[in-house]
Structure prediction request, 687 residues.
Amino acid sequence: MPLRVRLTLWYGTALALILVVFGGALYAVLTHGLRDQIDRSLEGAAAVAVRAVEKHGIGPFLPFEDLAAEFPELAVLDKTFQIFSPAGKITIQSPNLGHQDIPLSPTALASALNGQATFESARFQDGSTFRLLSVPIRENGVLVNIVQVGTSLQPIEEMLHRLVLVLLVSAPIALAAALGGGCFLADRALRPVEAIIQAAQRIAAGDLTQRLAVPSTLDEIGRLAATFNDMIARLEASFRQMRQFSADASHELRTPLTVIKGEAELALRRPRPAEDYRLVLESTLEEIDRMTRIVDELLFLSRTDLGEVAIESLPVRLDALVEDVRRQMAVLGQEHGVQVTVGSVDPAPVLGDELRLRELLLNLVDNAVKYSRPGGKVEIALVRESATARLSVTDQGIGIAPEELGRIFDRFYRTDAARAHAKKGTGLGLSICKWIAEAHHGRIEVQSTVGQGSRFTVVLPLTT
Amino acid sequence: MRILVIEDEAKVASFIRRALEEESYAVDVCADGAKGLELASAGCYDLVILDLMLPGLPGIEVLKTLRKDQVSMPVLILTAQSQVNQKVKGLDAGADDYLTKPFAIEELLARVRVLLRRGSGEAAGVLQIDDLVLNPATREVTRGGRRVELTTKEYALLEYLMRNAGRVLTRSMIAEHVWNQDFDTFTNVIDVYVNYLRNKIDRGQDRKLIHTVRGSGYSLKAE
Prediction:
């Protein structure tokens, strides 16, 4: 059920309850009040009648007119008077009764004998209802007369009846109006929500360029829309990144595929000497190695993204590691005509994963050698600085342009110069180095001058 | 027919060059966008095969600059970017064709033939002058319905002459487009090959098709 309908129904039910309670209370209070008022007026009239009777005494056949002449209050039309003998016989009757007797009830007579007044309601055969007050008159403790004052209840019954009618007619009208109004208001209040839903549906369908219109008033809806937009913007950015990443990945994998396919097809176009086939197979193996490296590195990076790569936290002697790596890379350096040396080395104990740290350093030195010119020098150094170990690899190679420095740690990013200089890179090595440094609560920094060389520095916290 | 390949991936460029050379095209390779643009602008190429991701200058800029400068030889984009919007962008920038890596060699060669055919106004895929017919796809040549067997160089020379039928082609033009050479001492070789061709095509025929233009070069036409 839509929120709008639900809100309206809740609202309507509450209003109906209020109307019922209010109507019932109004009816009860009014009924009680009117009764009370009638009883008071009957008491007043009865007091006058009692005084009149006591003054005159009750002779036989005393006409009512004589009493009325002296007590004009008795001559009001809406009150009836009857005076009964202690035996219950009517002795005097007001003319507005038109000789229609109202009998004295046994209850009233019994109360009168005990000296008590009685209020009662009576309904007659013609349907009219009366309110009656019977008051005993006693002399020296003996009941001598009973005064009965009455008044028709018809006016107040009519009035109450009309009240009920008004309530029955007006309450549904008020309820209907309130429901309509409530529905309209709920609709108005929820319209921006509807707009948000539609926009969100378009966005869910894949159009991340969509944005919600933010209402100028910064109420809850406005804040919701702004929050949504913020979220979508971040989604869009991360989607763009992902698309760029997969486009780059597919490009990097397509190049070796293109070479393998192209060279194989070319070789098969016509019979060739065995030497040609051997060259093609060698080249194919080279490309397969390249693809394997790319796939391995991609898998590693995606596992780091998922938090699946565990990093050990054991004491590592960085100074020993530096010497190890130098020895290992010296051979590669010789192939490229590059001298790999070790500069100043401070003892620097750190906590970490020796395998990963070795991989990090090997990567950096490998890069340094690859991007050096023959005759160049690569220096590994390790210095302590306050609470950190600074492990640096400095080369005299081609360098990196300032505008590219910020991007070299991005996945698959390779500078044009790097592409031209060393074809075999995957563009992922520095991303991995950065991850390893950060996984050790450290960081990696780079300084470079085009044509003069680069220095990569890994800053790691020392064991305390 | 002389083709420029602008491609920075050395191995890709290398096998494309070998495949095209086996089809007796003259091929130059360039690995840098800016240098490629310079070469292509010089204008003695019949077709350019262009990668998009290039050092120096992106391929798309090379293409736009060429077209802005009214250089009109056919350009085939050869790239790993396979998204539709990339293709549209490339074609709109003035490319004549778009092929994504990895590709089949035969398809590349077929597309090269199509683009060269378009340049010469040839319709059915075959070149025909009088009763001399050359089919670039099968590399078959017939004169008056009779099959003519040609060596690779002879074929390349004939195809160049036929694509430029009616025009006078100087010896240095022929050297550039057929032999990928541009020095004058080479002209003797050209004369030798033209004679070979004459022996195979015009000998014993009433209507000679290969004509020597004294002091200039050669021309192939039906008189």
